[in-house]
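Memo to structure team: turn this sequence into structure tokens by end of day. - J.P.
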Amino acid sequence: MGEDLASESDLLSMINEYLRFAEFEETARVFEKELKRKGKPALRSAGHSRRDSSAIVIHDDFLSSFNDGDYKVFSELWAKNIPPEIRDFDPVAQKLEFYLQIHFTIYPLKFPVGSHDKGELESRITHFKHYLETRGAALSQTTEFLPFYALPFVPNPTVHPSFQELFQDSWMPELREKLEKFLSVILKASNTPRLLTLYVSFLSIQQMQLHLTEAERKSAIHMRRFAKLQADHHSLIGVTAELVDSLEATVRGKMISPEYLQGVCMRLFSGHMRQSAAQSVDFTRPGTASSMLRASVAPERPKEVPLLPSLDYEKLKKDLVNGSDQLKALLLQALRWRLTRSLHGEQRDTVLQAFISNDVLERYSSKQKTVLHLMKSKNEIVRQYMSRLINAFASLCGGRMYLSQMPSLLRFLLDCLKTEEKESVTRENVLGALQKLSLRRAQQSAMIRDGLIGWLVKELHDSDCLSDYTLEYAISLLMNLCLVSDIRYYVNGALYSILSMPEIREEAKQMSMEEILRCYSKEENPELNRQIEFIIKQLNSADIPEHEPESDDEEDDDDDDEEDVMEADLDKEEVLQPQPKELSGESLLTTEYLGIMTNMVKMKRRSYPPSTRSIDEPLQRPVTPSSHKNTM
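Reply from structure team:
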């Protein structure tokens, strides 16, 4: 009981701490009164007070070392109390550090204290040179700081025109004021309430889980490749052994028959050629086998793939949420074209990775209104172009993984599917995205729970009124949902429910339902057999036993074996036309949203084994119709 009270006290304290941190003072007071009235455990606030007092001490130490020109103490405080991600990447922190380095370098010139000034000045100039060559090198292309790179080499900076500003009486107080403002923000951030820290940690864990899932997927692909290489290696060793035996036999005068050579070569190339193709090659012709072997291992010259310019994604996402409807639609179109018009392989992989790493759909945003909410826009063109972009994401395995991490996406898509006009382009793209997302187990199960099967059956009832795209993707989506192994549990649940009605039970008995169910129970599936026994009991009894059919979302996704394809329909019937002199597409992105070049890391292209499924073989796993169509 004591531990429960302590945990409750911690939780309540974290809530109160956050309310105070966010300056909800009135809410915090009401909260504390409510706790006292209900007799809840006392709040713990000592830790926060200690952090506050510690921050004050650190703040004073910073200013004291600044005023005294003690760069060694200041440097230690800076390294210890300013987070690395702020020190190394925040522009404000980088600029402030640069000016602070200047301050400590010229301090002996402004405040001489004795005969050791010259040696102290030389030491500080050496330190400043080192800074310019290391941490300060990042600002060497900035016009504002360029003149100061000559400071260590000027004999008397106090009289040099370029540095007059540094020796004015107002320069040091202004710099100190900037330092104080910076410290007030940073040190307050270090006192982040525990509740907010937990939330940020939770988001970080989710991001790590996403990376882990991707790593596991890549690991599985590499394991399959390794198994194939291992099998090829063993086959090669066997063929090599036979060839060595043949060489030894020829030394002893025994001739090798053409049929034997043909058989050995067919075994050698069977893993890399169709059997019919291997049989059609005359390996007995001199030089044929050796030429094919050399060609199979000849290195291909890598093609240079141009990388698209990086973008300022923060500005782009802000305009997607707050811009005009025309701008939103143009940006959505430009982002989609980046995916659909990029070269298949490395270039497209790089574009997709940039979109995901910069969270272009704001999966990890805590804002109430995000880019994803454009699916509910009042503007039909914005909704259409948002659905087109989501469909393009869903066409790629990495995009499907990214979309599957958005809990609200499926609800948005299903709502849109049921409210959009019957043959609108928006609904077609939503249907296409859902079909591609149905390659993933968790999404399949969610769609089934939300009654999508019933909706599809109703839509397909009047198939003559559907477009080719809608008909093809609706049938494929229905097939994917029905191929899910856990659909049996929903069917069993439905049977179990309707057999609670006496008239249904009597009809089922007359059609020998029990014998039919017994036939299915012969399968090697204990869980299915257990459910069938419950259904049979329901069939033979008016009582309703307490049993819930179980579902299994833990099966492997069918996504890994599905090839990335971009069907041409993604860019069909473009209704958006830019106004005169209005930018669109790549021109819009690179003119208004050009960012720092960050996508230089080359990504390995996914490779897929050739499909071994016969055309006449019944489907055993979900598929996407676009794999049989013209793609981009």
